[in-house]
Amino acid sequence: MDLSSLNPEQRAAVRHSEGPLLLLAGAGSGKTRVITFRIAHLVRVKKVPAEQILAMTFTNKAAREMKERVVELVGAKTAANMIISTFHSLGVRLLRQEIERLGYKRTFSILGTADQLRLIRDLLQERTDSGGRKPDAERVQWLISDAKNRLISPAAFAAANSDFNRTLAAQVYPLYQNALKAYNALDFDDILFLTIRLLREHPDLCARWQEQFAYVMVDEYQDTNLAQYELLRLLCARRRNLCVVGDDDQSIYGWRGAEPGNILEFERDYPGATVIKLEQNYRSSGNILATANAVIRHNGKRREKKLWSAAGAGEPLELLHCDDEEHEARTVVERIQGLRFRHNLAFRDFAILYRTNVQSRAFEEQLRYENVPYVLIGGQQFFDRKEVKDALAYLQVIANPLDEVNLLRILNYPKRGIGEQSAERLIEASARRKRPLWELLRRPEGLEEIGEKGLAAVAQFTTLLETYRGRFRHTVHLAETARELFAAVGLEQEIMRGADDPGKARRRLENLAEVINALAVYEEREAVPTLSGFLDKVTLLDRDDPSHGGKEEKLGRDAVVLMSLHSSKGLEFPHVFLVGLEEEFLPHRKSEGEGADVDEERRLLYVGITRARLTLTLLHAGQRRKFGKPQLRVPSRFIEELPVELVLRSDGAVRPAPTPAEEQATANSFFSGIKALLGD
Ligand code: ATP
Ligand code: MG
Questions:
Q1: 37 with 258: CB under 8 angstroms?
Q2: Domains of the chain, each with CATH number or no CATH
Q3: What is the Å distance from ligand 1's center to 607 Cα?
């Protein structure tokens, strides 16, 4: 196999095949590239069967990109037999095989955050004693989630102190787990939590999977949390062929329980591990790299790394001060157009990175105004929109009728005469008779409470769903079947009835169509498409990775990319605009309890800077509107850490929005410019 496109350290890492290996190296040094070559080397040179390869990354997009690179090296057929996925996708795959051992059914559904919160709210209201104080459901949700990520079971989660919400969380956690189990549903954290339980409690399974995944590779290891760490430890305990790569300076998920200590202590956990460092950066110009190095040096606890670039110094970086968010957006879009025109670039060569998704609005408006194509990664929460959730709820209930959260969502949507009162009576009856709600609906004998009309409606509802369950089970044409289901249910009419203006109705109908499109795309990609397979993908997309199904499919288009700093990890772009360099954005003012960590925010800035290959422009605004009122903004404290000699500082060079006359003049001079270029 040709390894000549690697440097000696990279080659050594690729050739190392048995035993634990740690690759600790800075941004853009080829870590991900090493993983892909290493996979190819194992399969092609070491003749390891493809089924024994397991590679894990952090986001679905990163997983897909890694798979594409592996396909180039070993061919699609071989690559199809490997698992290259996120931790959670792996968990779901293993649970779908073996979850029955834990008393769940294999048709389990996965609840999104909003549903999870609703369930917790209900439980808080019903069964706990809050002594008249108002419980903070989101805080309780976070505490339970945090406990699961630390692998703490309901029984072990004792209220460690007298904190009000912690005490409530301790009460609710077991009730919540029971409710989930009754609904045959998991929350996002259960995916790893239960996979680990399987591995711990069933040695035969553990042994089988240890043999199956004989070679394990993990990208972005610095962002693993305790659950992920434990999963790896269990899977690799016997063969110890674990190769992890990462950069402690890019650890940005501390708020979600990631432990950068995992990477710093790898040698202790895996004695005899080979450690390889990579020091050459192949991505960024010298100036960009020097700026990144200067910024990250302000962090206390870190492993000092040398990182150099053979590329020249390149363009200086620019720091632009803008008046407000409008001005910031105009400046960025104008620069994109200028650079593109001068250097004949594609739109996809540009990325706009921000700390929080709300910042995207002004840019979207300006890009649309200027007719510049763009893709927005994450933020709009496609699958969180009401009409989308309604449609998906139908699919969820068809896949798993025990899922009462979704069942209640659609019971009277569209309205079919099972009002709230009837629904409550049904829930009560189901509790009284200790029968799942769905069972009750299918055989509602003796349920006079909901009246004859109600009974008829229930019968029609269950018959429809049962019919479609049968159809979905026996077809690979998921998109078409879903389209017919939505029509039979009358979702479109309901959307049109419910919207207060035609524009809104149209957008909602488009979103409904987008769900069907997402099914069609899934169907095309998958060898064996199934409804629950699709739903898994959607749910995991939702949480794992801030990018969202349908929209994301358009990534291939030539378009400017807008995304948060978190989702930009691992990616690279020729020209990057890092916007909103202000206090409260970066460092972000976090809600109390989740720990505002300035070092972590600095690492986030480091991640952002190191995405850029050729130019990097940093921007901040003097004021921004909040609830319609302008508010003064304080420049980020990190600005002072940017080396003065590498970063040009100036006011955003854009004038206020042009008048129509000025616009005409610009257009004229633009066309005469083109004519001049063409030699007219
Ligand atoms: P990050 O820390 O951002 O995840 P990384 O260490 O994973 O970065 P890669 O994405 O693997 O780095 O590589 C960065 C860029 O450098 C890619 O464009 C890659 O193709 C290129 N590259 C890596 N190694 C070499 C090499 N030996 N020769 C030429 N180009 C290389
Ligand atoms: Mg990488």
A1: no
A2: 8-97+192-280 (3.40.50.300), 109-183 (1.10.10.160), 317-381+554-651 (3.40.50.300), 389-541 (1.10.486.10)
A3: 14
CA–CA dist 530, 537 (Å, integer): 11
Closest ligand 1 atom to residue 10 Cα is 27
Burial of 205 (0-12, 13-18, 19+ CB in 10 A): middle
How many CB atoms lie under 10 A from the CB of residue 530? Answer: 18
247 lines ligand 1 (CB under 6 A): yes
H/E segment holding residue 391: helix 386-399
Q: How far is the CA of 305 from the centre of ligand 1 (A)?
A: 16
Indicate the pTM of the whole model.
Answer: 0.81
Atom 30 in ligand 1: residue holding the nearest Cα:
282
Ligand 1 center–CA 571 separation, angstroms:
10
Ligand 1: nearest atom to the Cα of 250 = 2
Residues belonging to the active site:
31-32, 219-220, 250, 611
Please tell me if the CB atom of residue 32 comes closer than 6 angstroms to any atom of ligand 1.
yes
Per-10-residue mean pLDDT, the chain, length 680:
94 95 95 97 97 92 90 95 94 96 94 87 78 84 92 83 81 94 94 97 97 97 93 96 94 80 87 94 96 93 83 94 94 96 95 90 88 79 80 96 93 90 87 90 84 90 96 94 96 87 81 85 86 86 44 63 92 96 89 64 96 97 83 95 92 54 53 46
